Sodium/hydrogen exchanger
Amino acid sequence: QKILFLVYKATVAEDSAMENIVTEKKAEESHRQDSADLLIFILLLTLTILTIWLFKHRRFRFLHETGLAMIYGLLVGVVLRYGIHVPRDINNVTLSCHVNSSPATLLVNVSGKFYEYTLKGEISANEVSDVQDNEMLRKVTFDPEVFFNILLPPIIFHAGYSLKRRHFFRNMGSILAFAFVGTVVSCFIIGLLMYGCVMLMKQIGQLGGDFFFTDCLFFGAIVSATDPVTVLAIFNELQVDFDLYALLFGESVLNDAVAVVLSSSIVAYQPEGDNSHTFEAMAVLKSFGIFLGVFSGSFALGVATVSLTCPHVTKFTKLRDFQLLETALFFLMSWSTFLLAEACGFTGVVAVLFCGITQAHYTYNNLSPESQDRTKQLFELLNFLAENFIFSYMGLTLFTFQNHVFNPIFIVGAFLSVFLGRAANIYPLSFLLNLGRRNKISSNFQHMMMFAGLRGAMTFALSIRDTATYARQMMFSTTLLVVFFTVWICGGGTTQMLSCQHIRVGVDSDQDNSVSGVFLQIGPDGIERRSTKQESAWLFRLWYNFDHNYLKPILTHSGPPLTATLPACCGPLARCLTSPQAYENEGQLKDDDSDLILNDGNISLTYGDITVSTDATGTRTSGQPVGGINSDEALDRELTFGDHELVIRGTRLVLFELHGKKQNHV
Amino acid sequence: QKILFLVYKATVAEDSAMENIVTEKKAEESHRQDSADLLIFILLLTLTILTIWLFKHRRFRFLHETGLAMIYGLLVGVVLRYGIHVPRDINNVTLSCHVNSSPATLLVNVSGKFYEYTLKGEISANEVSDVQDNEMLRKVTFDPEVFFNILLPPIIFHAGYSLKRRHFFRNMGSILAFAFVGTVVSCFIIGLLMYGCVMLMKQIGQLGGDFFFTDCLFFGAIVSATDPVTVLAIFNELQVDFDLYALLFGESVLNDAVAVVLSSSIVAYQPEGDNSHTFEAMAVLKSFGIFLGVFSGSFALGVATVSLTCPHVTKFTKLRDFQLLETALFFLMSWSTFLLAEACGFTGVVAVLFCGITQAHYTYNNLSPESQDRTKQLFELLNFLAENFIFSYMGLTLFTFQNHVFNPIFIVGAFLSVFLGRAANIYPLSFLLNLGRRNKISSNFQHMMMFAGLRGAMTFALSIRDTATYARQMMFSTTLLVVFFTVWICGGGTTQMLSCQHIRVGVDSDQDNSVSGVFLQIGPDGIERRSTKQESAWLFRLWYNFDHNYLKPILTHSGPPLTATLPACCGPLARCLTSPQAYENEGQLKDDDSDLILNDGNISLTYGDITVSTDATGTRTSGQPVGGINSDEALDRELTFGDHELVIRGTRLVLFELHGKKQNHV
């Protein structure tokens, strides 16, 4: 309620009408400048696309589109920084009034007229003179929240939506271990090493400001988010082993989510005493609680909103007939998940990731084929544009950002610790996982994963989000260099690394299936581990059955009709929730999601028993008639169906082959 | 260079660290609030989509999606206004300091820390207390520039891109007359009537502020932009006569562009003397010059950037193989046209309209079939979302906008003058046009056009752009009511009006072709007018030939190869510019754009002669083999090809029919 009125006698009295015109002109000028700045980025992206085309056309694989976008960004940054001298605008006066708080809205009284100002942020004292000097450079600097709220969501959603679920679920355990344990380990290793580095800098007097241990941990968290887009693009092109692909992709998708939540809980670390930045068990516990709460909250929100609303909406309306409405609805639902999570104080990016996975799992099945294509293409486009925009902005910002703090010791330390942190993530975890995995992560896979630990969009977005303090500015500058180095050197050397590590390329879906078959044959010699394997997969199988028999039929058109899976007493409810398509599908494609259970050979064997035993109807066609499809026919089908279908068909084929083999063995 | 430092001793000294936290919390709170606000709109759109589906499913045509979006917006507006009471935030202090100018950037020194504020805009003195009171209502109010720079461009681009060029060009003359002459007439009629109205209000003392003649003209300009989305959607569904559709659609698309430029040149009207708002010939001339300059500049920029860059880029790169790159490039090119126009001081919306038309004319032919679908679907989706967002925001703003000025006399006057302005546009112009048109605009068509003069997104965006003065606020409130009334009453009554005016529905492409045939048969009785017709079409034919023989081959893969159309001396250049596809296409689809010339029966007759005479190769297959296609076959083809293709094929069929008939007559 305390509204302070500050009266300042204007020294130069100006005519009100003239001033109005000046203000209008200024606004127009500013708008034109904004348009021109945005145009620079659009032209940058256009240039990038054209060069990418050239590279793809010439099958040139040393530089990925993201690396290229960075190079173009760098060039434009140099031009903006050193090439262009904008004549100083006399009218562009900056006033400074000293008041006792910084409200979100400020009213300024200019000779009787009120102007409204909104808070943009704090700037450091030494920047004050820069504000006038480099208006143009400041203009091309985006609000950092743009990255988090506009550019990152489509990228993360697309990652979730295009996740190859079959391979993902097959390597689920390892991916979770790398993403959660690995990222936390990496974060703390990097944090500790950097703290040592900072101590050293303090000793030799190279530190120009505060740098606490929490800052080091924060740095560890943000550079632990890997983003191997470059590597995965090459993997896709060369058709590298699917398990390696799944491990890398799954890890990078999930560790982005982990890193976001981890960094925000590190920021939230606040010991009781005013003298902060000391160790305190309670505060650590609280931070850990925040981590768990925010992560699980975002996860639950992403999964729940989608699985509670979207599939039902798409299932029971006949929206299929209106593809435009369907696509629009799908887009809006996904966006609203992000907004809901942000509005609830959770992390929208994490929610949108799990939203993407859930949409792919349930809603996708209810969409008409046209909308399946449309949504895929839409998010592919958004992902492409956002990603290249972020990377070209990264290049640009190396020159246009005004408060870079490059410290040689810190940079060398960061590179070393990033390397060691990645090593401490991959090798020990792989060793531990290999104790439990039948399908071992071989040492060349480990080296490849180590090498593919690029840093990208998420690391950048996290580090640019707050560049107010000295510590954060140094982190930001160093992070930029880490991203540049990893994307150019590690990304560019992927093909060499692959051939150097003798990792086989050119694996297609069929060959991969035969690999699953191999597991089965080598299965019997690992018989002592089978029981433990079944134990660990027990929870997963339970979930699978629940999903297949109840969730899928309730939420989508696929799966067995509920009338068959629910007990007889729920008959009316079951009939009301089952869509007509489910009955139609019953005979044919009932195993759409058998891919989920295929995480080990012996599980797919038991799968056969389970379905047979849970089926009370007895009317099921057994594997025989479908199993009769020969591989030529299957290949034909694969050529006609899309990628999503392909995976499903491929799996079914294996299943029935396994089933057949088992019967032969019996 | 004049940096003023204002020192204010803080009355309540606060701890710096505590304050930091408070600022951070405030920013977080504000972000959450923003997310929640956006979520409201997303849910509104979702609700709209679901209800639209229901309406479409039940074939309920009294309420279009835009009308529905407005109703939902209204309801949410009521809830926000009267239903929710946000507890006043104590921390949300608004400071007021009196200084002598309003710079774009303001630095505030809070106990040694500098905070940066950016200018949001001027607010009137009586609003100052509202700023504190209705923080929440102000939050859901978007920056008006969002409409112009983000939401309107995709709508306008989509209109240009989806223009049915065949019918558009056939009625080109009439459309241009309605759009240019009609809009200007309507603007001045409305302006004059409203000025009378304002004079009356001044007499009886109902005017609470300044209201000049230029304001009246401005009002005339903004309510002259028609937007019959509702009507056209019903036309599409009922397959109403294509000429009526083309007239309405073409007029509304172009008069949006005219209205934007007209309103900005009225704003730019500034007589020499300081005592403005008086009539002055020079200033009027200057405004007229601005109108011409901005319109032709935007037009030239839209056409030039696209036709100079995009087709070449898509033609000579083999981007066709990478649809994602192609679509991304197409999107970026279109966006950069908008930005370029804005950066140059032209009107981006106008540029983007002509960009859309040009893209459809040239670039579309170079795209791969997948990208043609993708781009269409992408812009369809963007258009759908933007349109519904604007209409639901319109509904919401009726209650959440804080400075409504509803004046009964002004409102009644506005409705009357809008009606009279539309009448003064349609009837006299139709009479004049009918003197020159063979295919008369019948009186029931005229009534329908009169009735279909809805006001929509453009009118709203123009009126919300500036609501600083009393006059503008009154205009804004009145405009909202005009939009509501026309969309609900005129939009809802379209079906009734159609049947009442006995306008035939259920016209499909084939029947329409037979209509062209009818023109030919009624041709001979209008023989005295034929020569004038040919005169007026002379320029157009010249352009067509130039376009068909040179521009199309240079810019796209279609059309005859340049080696055939260019003189022999240009041989090497021609060979270098002609794409391999052009030779392939030579035999078959050479008349892809014959639709352009089909604006009258006799022109299509002469067309036959022209192509024969300009063809020096002599290798052309004549109309005979293709003309042999019977209509059943053509129908089959139409079912397999998309809408765009359909139009082309349909036209070709007529052409050859006409050709054949001519030969029979000879």
In short: The CA atoms of residues 23 and 29 of chain B lie 10 Å apart. Confidence is low (pLDDT under 50) at residues 1-15, 89-93, 510-536, 586-666 of chain B. The radius of gyration of chain B is 28 Å.
